[in-house]
Structure to design on (660 residues):
């Protein structure tokens, strides 16, 4: 091999070393772990190679609960948060007065400390010996019965989790979408106006296709982010998520490794591989759908 | 459909934070554009041409004055009901739609009795596509077209509803030189075939002169002269119009009138009978010089031979520009070396303007 071919590889070497060491090797290792049956991390031994780990995980009621929670979270929060962000961005784009004020307000959650956010949600939802929580007070004011959102029925807990997730991801999406909307050339709108295009048609036929690459980006990252949800759940329901029935797939992986019932890297790896397969599938579907509906200019 | 502007004025609020002075983009426009003509709004950038176009289209509302289409006052008619076709400088073709979908787009907005079936729309689209000669590219996306082709699609989209007035904002400025020549002929042909009153904006005087029936020369929101291109060229109303039209540009010299003669540096260079004594600008078109004359002294820098013409590049101590150009027939015997020589001036190509007002002095 000639010298000139070696040079670029030399430049890439530092990056490659770190990538292989901290990305590729662990990734491959996860796949290996997931196949090693009855692996013992202390003695580094295993009894054989097979699919037992997967079968165990898929029959574990905690995993199934986590899977269900994650799917509900994804299906509810991704479309809702993107839709709400789009509505707010459209609103922001059409006002001129107080625009900066609202833009800042909507962006606040992004720069707010998670613990502070958790505290606010406690005030809003948590039932204590002293208070019913803001939301319950509101419900009571309208003649409804109090609901325990943190330790109560499943739907109430799910509602809080979705609400929290949507609220947390909104600012970033609004930021992306307002800039996407602002970058659409005014001439397109003028041209449509001259032709007598209705407002709704302008939105569906011009605005949406024009910002479709950004929307698509938000949907993809939204899906991936929601599938990887864990910390939100912990912030709301504490670390014993299995008991609360609010665990997520990533939470399950963590519990299998370090939780009270942990010490099972093989099960954790198997769950991680399953998550990987799910995200891969969803992203591929997204890509296929986007071919038809996303317009890059 | 004739277009009449009556005392049309558009002021914009001052954007500068320090001064809130209003900017007058269009100042008291009062003229009529006859039916079925191709009209050019010509002026340097920032003179209010595009604003005028937007006022006619209805995209902007005038501060004062009225716009008439035929006998109808359309000043308060919203843009979508005016029946105008508008071609944007950057064409504003919808990038995610094919050529055909772009052209059909305006038709899909028709409602009620005007509503067309899909077949009718396709038929109409094909009709205008043939008119602008892009019928072979109907399935392509705008990105896959050249600048000239995109321009045609934009015109087709503006024409498909058969507008009463077609408006074009700098239609040729995004094209390269060769395409520009070709497209302006095309524009002329399309306008003649459809007979639609067409108004276009340009800063290129050559473009305007070559295809317009009528030309409106403007500067800083004020109309300076309206007329047929050749008439304006031959008979400019003021110094700005004279300087703005013509390539190569007109040559301007400072001088004064004494006893019916134009004097420059003590030389009597031109007869101006009946003109009162005053300071003047003497402006001479490049083709207005007669070589080997006796009255107008100049310093020849060099000569350029271009086929049937010879350009004499010369300097003159009273000229506004350092380099002046005279174009004479190649049959004239012009020495190659620099040196002092004399011209005579052709009366039809020589204009006098008041130094004070820059208005034309007629005699």
């Amino acid at each position: 091999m000639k010298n000139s071919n070696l040079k670029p590889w030399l430049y890439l070497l530092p990056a490659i070393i770190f990538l292989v060491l901290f990305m590729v090797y662990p990734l491959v290792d996860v796949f290996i772990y997931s196949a090693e049956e009855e692996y013992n991390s202390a003695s580094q031994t295993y009894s054989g190679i097979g699919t037992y780990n997967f079968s165990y995980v898929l029959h574990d009621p905690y995993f199934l609960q986590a899977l269900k929670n994650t799917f509900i979270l994804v299906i509810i929060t991704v479309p809702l948060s993107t839709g709400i962000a789009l509505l707010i961005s459209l609103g922001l784009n059409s006002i001129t007065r107080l625009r900066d004020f609202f833009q800042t307000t909507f962006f606040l959650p992004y720069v707010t400390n998670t613990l502070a956010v958790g505290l606010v949600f406690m005030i809003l939802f948590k039932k204590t010996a002293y208070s019913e929580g803001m939301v319950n007070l509101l419900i009571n004011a309208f003649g409804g019965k109090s609901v325990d959102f943190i330790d109560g029925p499943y739907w109430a807990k799910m509602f809080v989790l979705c609400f929290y997730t949507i609220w947390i991801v909104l600012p970033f999406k609004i930021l992306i979408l307002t800039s996407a909307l602002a970058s659409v050339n005014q001439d397109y709108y003028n041209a449509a106006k001259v032709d007598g295009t209705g407002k709704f048609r302008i939105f569906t036929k011009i605005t949406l296709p024009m910002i479709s690459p950004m929307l698509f980006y938000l949907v993809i990252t939204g899906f991936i982010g929601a599938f990887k949800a864990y910390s939100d759940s912990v912030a709301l329901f504490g670390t014993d998520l299995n008991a609360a029935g609010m665990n997520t797939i990533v939470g399950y992986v963590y519990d299998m490794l370090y939780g009270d019932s942990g010490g099972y890297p093989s099960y954790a790896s198997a769950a991680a591989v399953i998550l990987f397969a799910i995200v891969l599938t969803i992203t591929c579907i997204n890509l296929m759908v986007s071919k038809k509906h996303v317009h890059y200019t | 459909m004739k277009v009449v502007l009556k005392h049309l004025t558009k002021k914009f609020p001052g954007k500068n934070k320090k001064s809130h002075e209003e900017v007058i983009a269009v100042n008291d426009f009062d003229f009529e554009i006859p039916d079925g003509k191709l009209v050019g709004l010509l002026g340097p950038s920032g003179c209010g041409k595009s604003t005028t176009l937007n006022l006619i289209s209805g995209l902007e509302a005038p501060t004062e004055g009225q716009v008439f289409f035929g006998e109808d006052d359309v000043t308060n008619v919203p843009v979508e009901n005016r029946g105008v076709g508008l071609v944007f400088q950057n064409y504003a073709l919808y990038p995610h739609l094919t050529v055909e979908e772009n052209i059909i787009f305006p038709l899909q907005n028709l409602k009620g009795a005007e509503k067309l079936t899909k077949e009718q729309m396709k038929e109409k689209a094909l009709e205008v596509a043939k008119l602008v000669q892009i019928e072979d590219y109907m399935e392509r996306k705008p990105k896959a077209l050249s600048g000239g082709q995109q321009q045609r699609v934009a015109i087709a989209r503006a024409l498909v509803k058969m507008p009463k007035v077609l408006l074009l904002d700098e239609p040729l400025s995004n094209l390269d030189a060769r395409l520009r020549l070709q497209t302006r002929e095309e524009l002329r042909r399309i306008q003649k075939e459809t007979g639609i009153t067409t108004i276009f904006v340009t800063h290129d005087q050559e473009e305007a002169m070559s295809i317009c029936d009528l030309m409106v020369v403007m500067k800083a929101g004020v109309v300076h002269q309206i007329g047929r291109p050749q008439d304006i060229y031959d008979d400019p109303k003021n110094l700005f119009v004279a300087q703005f039209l013509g390539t190569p540009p007109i040559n301007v010299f400072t001088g004064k009138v004494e006893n019916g003669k134009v004097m420059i540096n003590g030389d009597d260079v031109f007869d101006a009978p009946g003109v009162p004594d005053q300071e003047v600008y003497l402006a001479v078109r490049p083709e207005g010089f007669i070589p080997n004359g006796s009255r107008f002294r100049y310093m020849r820098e060099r000569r350029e031979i271009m086929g049937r013409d010879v350009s004499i590049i010369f300097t003159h101590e009273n000229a506004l520009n350092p380099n002046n150009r005279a174009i004479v027939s190649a049959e004239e015997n012009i020495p190659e070396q620099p040196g002092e020589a004399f011209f005579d001036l052709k009366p039809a190509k020589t204009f006098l303007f008041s130094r004070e007002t820059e208005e034309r002095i007629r005699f």
About this structure: The longest strand of chain B covers residues 23-33. Chain B has two domains: 3-243, 248-361. The two ends of chain B are 39 Å apart (CA to CA).
